[in-house]
Amino acid sequence: MNLTATHINYQQICKRKLWLFANGINMEHTSDMVYDGKLLHETSYPQRAERYEEMLISAEYEGVSLFGQIDYFDARNNTVHETKRSDKVEEAHSRQLKFYLWLLELNGVEEATGLLEYPKLRKTDEVFLDDKDREQLKKSVSEIKTLIESDTCPPAINAKICKSCSYFDFCYSGE
Q1: pLDDT value at residue 137
Q2: What distance in Å separates the CA atoms of residue 67 and residue 56, rounded to the nearest whole number?
Q3: Which of 6, 55, 105, 109 could form a disulfide with 73 if both were Cys (CB 3.0 to 4.6 A apart)?
């Protein structure tokens, strides 16, 4: 089984979104917000292409293959930079960044830190990985594995965040 940082992010936002994504129902390609986020990532810090690089990273944990694509990794300062459009789901963004830090750690990179950057808000948050986070990530891997293997799609959550979700039409087409 493969598990990505997107799975970790979606677990924090909506279990239904996670289940749909993991079972091959992908709606991100139809979302203007997803496109806007990718454009923001590519244009917010043009000087970074010279100094930092995107990085694919993987590790194995209890029979699960873990994968992440780090936006920018500053190897000199051992810092992961993650660029996001909005801080509306900041906990999910933080967990995703901690997942990257954990992947680095599983690959022998110690004491990496993260910067969660919101260019439109002119806001940056520093993120660290501690023992509590490691335990939570291990628990998340187990919970995600169980959810993905379930034959039953979780119900819609009817939350404020749903209106801006790329799965909104799918979840609420019958209402």
Answers
A1: 98
A2: 7
A3: 55
* Type and span of the H or E element at 52: none
Q: How many CA atoms lie within 13 A of 157 on its CB side?
A: 17
Contact of 8 with 140, CB cutoff 8 Å = yes
Q: The whole model's pTM is what?
A: 0.86
Using only the alpha carbons of the chain, give its radius of gyration: 16
Sign of the CA dihedral running 82, 87, 90, 93: negative
What is the total count of domains within the chain? Answer: 1
CATH number of the domain encompassing residue 120: 3.90.320.10
Question: In this structure, what are the phi and psi dihedrals at residue 53, rounded to the nearest 5 degrees?
Answer: -140, 150
3-class DSSP assignment, residue 115:
strand
In this structure, the dihedral spanned by the alpha carbons of residues 165, 170, 171 and 175, taken in order and rounded to 10 degrees, is 120
User: Is residue 169 in some structural domain?
Assistant: no
Query: 64-74 and 79-83: which strand pairing?
Result: antiparallel
29: exposed, middle or buried (Cβ count in 10 Å: 0-12, 13-18, 19+): exposed
Residues 92-124 have pLDDT tens digits of 999 999 999 999 999 999 999 999 999 889 999
